[in-house]
Amino acid sequence: MPTQTAAEHELAILIVDALNLETVDPAQIDPQAPLFGGEMGLDSIDALEIALAVSKRYGMQLRSDHPDNQRIFSSLHALSEHVERERTV
Q1: Whole-angstrom distance, CA of residue 23 vs CA of residue 50
Q2: CA distance 20 to 17
Q3: How far is residue 60's CA from residue 64's CA, in Å, rounded to a whole number?
Q4: Which of 26, 52, 56, 74 would bridge with 12, disulfide CB 3.0–4.6 Å?
């Protein structure tokens, strides 16, 4: 399994906490694996919860009507890259 960056690990912890995924070890989330429709079994409601948690934690908006949401939420890696990019703008 690919190793998480520090930013990916921080985000993985946030996701696990926000979704109360008690049986998921944040360190074991593959940064390249799909967040939705894969092993984690996340759905659209979970995406809203993740967006809210990211908004609160990082002070940025992940809008439901963003045209790139499918790419942004495709994996832990993609979400982390987007958060890091938006935080520096």
Answers
A1: 17
A2: 5
A3: 13
A4: 26
Q: What is the mean pLDDT of each run of 10 residues along the chain (89 residues)?
A: 91 97 94 88 91 93 88 95 85
Contact present, 76 and 11 (Cβ < 8 Å): yes
The per-residue pLDDT for 35 is 92
Quote the pLDDT of residue 1: 64
What's the 3-state SS for the chain? Answer: CCCCCHHHHHHHHHHHHHCCCCCCCHHHCCCCCECECCCCCECHHHHHHHHHHHHHHHCCCCCCCCCCHHHHCCEHHHHHHHHHHHHCC
